[in-house]
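During the second year of the project, the team shifted from modelling isolated chains to modelling whole assemblies. The rationale, set out in the original proposal, was that interfaces cannot be judged from single-chain predictions alone. As a representative example for this report, we include one of the complexes processed in the last quarter. Its constituent sequences, exactly as entered into the pipeline, are reproduced here:
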Amino acid sequence: MVVKKRQYYGFNGFHMPPVPRAPRSARGRGLNKTKVEDSQICAFELLASLAGKLLQESESSASSNASEANDQPVIGGGGGVKFEQDDDRPLRAECLDHGSCGESAFFTRFSSPNNDQKCLLNEFPHAESNLFLERSSMIMNSNSSKNGGADLKSVICKSIPGKVEGSSDSRVSCDGYVDNGLSRQKRCDRLDTRGLIGDPCSSNDPMEKCMKFPVLINSVNNVELPSCRDPVTSASIPRHRNGIKLGIRDDAENFTRCNKPLTKSKAFRPPQRIGDRRIRKLLTSKHWKVGPKLKDCEFSKPAFLEGGVKSHYLKRKLCYSRERNQRNTFYKRRKFTDHSVVVTSDGGFSSESVCNSPDKNMTGDKNGASIMFHANGVSSSVIGHQASFHSKDSQVKFSIKSFRVPELLIEVPETATVGSLKRTVVEAVSAILGGGLRVGVLLHGKKVRDDNRTLLQTGITSNENLDALGFSLEPNPLQVSPPSCTEDPPALLPCDTSQLILRSPTSPIVDSGISDALPDLPPLTNLDTNIESNRESASSHADIVTDNTLSDSRALVAVPPVNTEELAMVPLNQKSKRSELVQRRTRRPFSVSEVEALVHAVEELGTGRWRDVNLRSFEDADHRTYVDLKDKWKTLVHTARIAPQQRRGEPVPQELLDRVLAAHAYWSQHQAKQHSKNQTAILKITDAHAVRNGVEDIQSI
DNA sequence: CTTAGGG
DNA sequence: CCCTAAG
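Output from the structure prediction step:
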């Protein structure tokens, strides 16, 4: 609402004073009354956008923190980082910059429905003008908040130094807005975290962002926070003028993601995760209780300015968690200085897996600890936009808002300069763009595969509601026919492979056997999930379209990419799917090598020391928690006991399974007998299984 | 936070 | 994988 208002005034030549005003609730109401025409962005939309922005910020905070350590409000500086976060929508691109500039950009765009193009040009005087040319038609529709993929273009532009400094005007107004709106919240947060955050001006603290949401929620009860990364959800935002859905969970999720990555070291991972989860829970369920009761002002101002977090349960919780997380992070950093530092803005639930192997490789490199920016799930969210004007000559006009980078994995030495990082990013992007990118066409969520059919035949006509049209980036040009992974399991391998190749244009991703590094191309075992995701997204999409049609057929609609296969869209889809559940981590089947490591560790440590096992053998596998290992062991034992025919997933060598049984048996007994040296038992067991390796390992213990 | 176990 | 009880 605030945004809306601000924007509204701004367009009429007014500038909201950067002075605190009445509670948002009040302002908000007034605004509603003042509601302008359709072309005006709905308050909710803006709110949602804002929320999205915040979310995105939070997501990127981890990396941002790292990159902004030098206090550089560099717009392009975060280039590398940005890509990571950009796994979703357009907001993202703008939001990536945590500096004020970034904000201004963001607000400018979304606050000037009638003037978007102009603003854009202002913001990106150079390249943008060209790049965004296409947007004009779409923008004219006033649907400025329609989602789009993180704008690759803009990102690129931003990575070019000095490019975006942009219009100071917009910034001013933005700042003003911030002050009126969320600033208080921010300040409060800072108070609490002072000292923890290096740059007080950069609101890149994950917690901070996360904590803002409740505020938003307060003011708008019937609004749901959409996940930033969910194209589907976000797409719907503009259209649902009445009931916007905000997927809180995503916020939490985002938060989680941004929160954990600072270091890869395993040791501190668990804490973070748990903390996140706690927060997540709070956000998901409890906030509903807490939020509505509190006034906006209550929530954000008094308690925190006074340094007292007490007044607000939720807030305190969050702060506490954050602090703890921070501590953990720092501790970890110190502790693992000679390990490579990995900054991943986990684009999704999967980034970890992708990083997994590379990290291992990097670990050896002491001095040149590397900073890895992992753009995971930076998918190409694409938006097909209809031309709202139907030309008589049957010309179909398309306006593609933006494409996002499918994925980027960039690895540069810590000693590398920011400039070199930028260049690297540019190269990576270029490689992707120039390399093998394909564009897919989606109609009503379905991929149009027949390239030979005419638009007319396909149903893409100037008369048709092009809202249902979408484009997708397909990273793998090699794939002649879009992989229907769901149909032919064997086909999965090719998919995976090709993707992997494509995904690491700059630096090779070393896959240490984690086959599902790519969430979008899950191994056999993930098929179901994938299918579900697709189904989900499809249905969501349908809803959206319907709504849109009803409410505003003119509005440009971002058609959420439905083909999970080509794009790293899974996170998005999953989000929509689980928008109401607590986020679930992506499934990452254990590779044989991992199993081997696990077995070996257990053989030595036993089955009751999962933390040690984790530390010992999965130090570099951030995503493997001791619980994971324990669970895996559990399943391994089970697997070893069932008939080979009943086993699913990547087959585990019988030899390993034998060792599993042997070790399991041994440790079962060992534990039972309390260290009673029963060599006999061991021998017996091992004999029974005739596992030589197992014997050796066990005996060597 | 870890473990252990059920879901 | 998630969730939870329990230590």
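Residues 1-48, 57-391, 477-580, 674-701 of chain A have pLDDT under 50 and may be disordered. Residues 582, 584-588, 627-628, 631 of chain A lie near DNA strand C (CB under 10 Å from a C1').
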